[in-house]
Amino acid sequence: MRIGILMLPTDPWPQTVARVRHLEALGYHHLWTYDHLSWRRYRDRPWHAAIPWLTGLAGVTSRVRLGTMVASPNFRHPAPFAKEAMTLDHVSGGRFTLGIGAGGIGDDAEVLGHTVLGPAERADRLAEFVDLLDRLLRNPETSHRGARYTVHEARMHPGCVQQPRLPLAIAAGSPRTLGLVARYGDAWITYGDPLYRDTTAEAVQRTVTAQADRLAEHCAAIGRDPAGIDRIYLIGNTPERPLASVAAFTDFVGRYRELGFTDIVFHHPRPDDPVWTDDPGIVEAIAAELLG
Fold first, then answer.
1. Measured between alpha carbons, how far is 248 from 264 in angstroms, rounded to an integer?
2. What is the pTM of this model?
3. How far is Cα 267 from Cα 62, in angstroms, rounded to an integer?
4. Of 79, 124, 133, whose CA–CA distance to 102 is shortest?
5. Domain membership of residue 11 as a residue range
6. Nearest to residue 279, comparing CAs of 271, 291, 287, 290?
7. How many domains does the chain have?
8. CATH number at residue 171
9. For 132-185, what is each residue's pLDDT tens digit?
10. 237: Cβ contacts below 8 Å, ≥ 6 apart
11. Cα gap 74→193, rounded to integer Å
């Protein structure tokens, strides 16, 4: 089981660099950040752009993988975004994973003055977004005219370091978006029910099991082995507190390993955050027990 940490892009840069270098030295497998223009309770606090922030981290690390958790079409166009992702793949020496999702209904959905879309429309938009990103990242030249995006002879030289393109990790929970994972995904990201209707540990496990079964059905329909898709579980905002102790985290990892997950990601504890209030020392304790 690989273990990663999600960090908010909000702290002063020297502090961020020191923390990331420490996490890499501890042996964590991957580091992620949210891709928003602003976010929820941090709306009026410092918040940096994800791609430049990750590019800076690529320059001060050498081993740990880096990724977005997750980018969305709310304020992104596939052509310039593919170019940014390709460039980050080069700066990182092939250590970048592009996490993508349908986008929500918060600040990012309104900031450009667009109509806020419903779930079905967001899934439709994501389908075109992912298909076009896939083609842009694989090919030296791409043109496209679709329902939401137009691209005319977009050049992608020199192409990705990772071939045939950098990995796409797609966040999905609905039947439609799980179909996109089956077709395009190198990894699947979930935290259970996106609406958090039942957040007990048992209910979340039932939800992700049902999602995994649906993903397997989509894979079977197109002749793909679902074992070739990494499964990333993002520990969400639920009553279960896996970071309460090393024992609790070890138990949590074991349960999700049995469900077929290959990766676990947790939010780095923050003393100034009302939700992620666990002792920051758990980061070192987990590394000593599970990554040493």
1. 14
2. 0.97
3. 22
4. 124
5. 2-291
6. 271
7. 1
8. 3.20.20.30
9. 999 999 999 999 999 999 999 999 999 999 999 999 999 999 999 999 999 999
10. 196, 199, 275
11. 21
